[in-house]
Amino acid sequence: MPEAALRVCALYPDLMNIYADRGNLLLLERRCAWRGIGFELTSASVGDRVDPDAHDLFYMGGGQDRDQKLCAHDLVDTKREALHAAADRGAVVLAVCGGYQLLGRSYVLGDEEIPGIGLVDLHTIRADGGTGGRLVGNVAIEVDLPGTPGPRVLAGFENHGGRTHLGPGAEPLGRVLRGHGNTGASGFEGVRRGNVLGTYLHGPLLPKNAWLADWLIRRALGLEAALAPLDDALEDATHRSACAAAGLPE
Q1: What is the DSSP letter of 63?
Q2: How far, CA to CA in Å, does 155 sit from each of 13, 43, 246?
Q3: For residues 118 and 140, what is the distance between their CA atoms, to the nearest angstrom?
Q4: I need a surface site. Which of 1, 2, 7, 94 has the fewest CB within 10 A?
Q5: Which residue, among 52, 100, 57, 81, has the nearest Cα to 222 in the 3D structure?
């Protein structure tokens, strides 16, 4: 039996998965298995309550506007307090694209304001065609996470109509090297508060950035020591390819 197990709760996997973001969960499972770490996956959808102490990592991907609205109201009604409690005790929360937008205070769609759960200080406004439309393309950002040997690069793909504005109490996940980021003008991408991470990078994110998957595993399990090394030749090649697609020099 594995000595440790990573307990993951996937939020709305039936509704928030339009960019193949289940690949993020699969990579976490594989990198745990290759090291002899157990992996327990639970899903929670509309109407399901979650136990803040039963999971080490919460994950939410992106969805269509209709599904995102449904999930937003359910998050507020049935999961907000539990997710705040989990984040306060140090659980990891990773939210991608639409999930990222719901971490903040609100998401404005035209005349409609969708509530967020307020885990981080940000709000998002949907841009229409007259104000620039969607921000689409390969993107690379520089991040400096605790416990990593200096800044690292995250590479992925962004496709979002929202402009996410960080409040004075929020820190970006990283600095845009190539691509658009949160607003297309701020020079920043994503958000991080402790172990809570939000980002527009998908495609999916973790298979292109295996080092981040390892960072998440360590943080979620509260491990001080580095994880056992793996043969990451394919993962490193994938990361280089994603960086090249974003226009970073070799």
Answers
A1: -
A2: 23, 27, 7
A3: 26
A4: 1
A5: 57
Rounded distance, CA 76 to CA 86, Å? 15
d(CA 41, CA 45): 13
How far apart CA 102 and CA 119 sit, in angstroms, is 9
pLDDT single digits (tens) 74-85: 999 999 999 999
Give residue-wise pLDDT tens across range 200-237. 999 889 999 999 999 999 999 999 889 999 999 999 99
- The CATH class, in words, for 5-245 is alpha beta
| Residue of 37, 77, 78 lying closest to 57 (CA atoms) | 37
Angle, alpha carbons 220-89-3 (nearest 5°) = 40
Cα–Cα distance, 133 to 122 (Å, whole number):
20
Q: What is the mean pLDDT of the chain?
A: 94
Q: Tell me, what's the pLDDT at 3?
A: 65
Closest C-alpha among 202, 221, 232, 219 to residue 96:
202
Contact 162, 113 (CB under 8 A): no
For residue 66, give the 3-state DSSP assignment: helix
Q: Which two tokens stand for residue 241?
A: 């390819």
Structure token digits, residue 107: 């998401």
| Closest listed residue to residue 20, CA positions, set 63, 68, 56, 72 | 63
With both helix axes pointing from N to C terminus, report the angle between 210-221 and 22-33 in degrees, rounded to the nearest 10. Answer: 70
Active-site residues, by number, are 97, 202
The DSSP result for 102-165, as a single string, is TTSSEEEETTEEEE---SSSEEEEE--GGGT--EEEEEEEEE--TTSSS-EEEEEEEEESEEEE
What whole-number distance in Å separates Cα of residue 2 and Cα of residue 171? 36
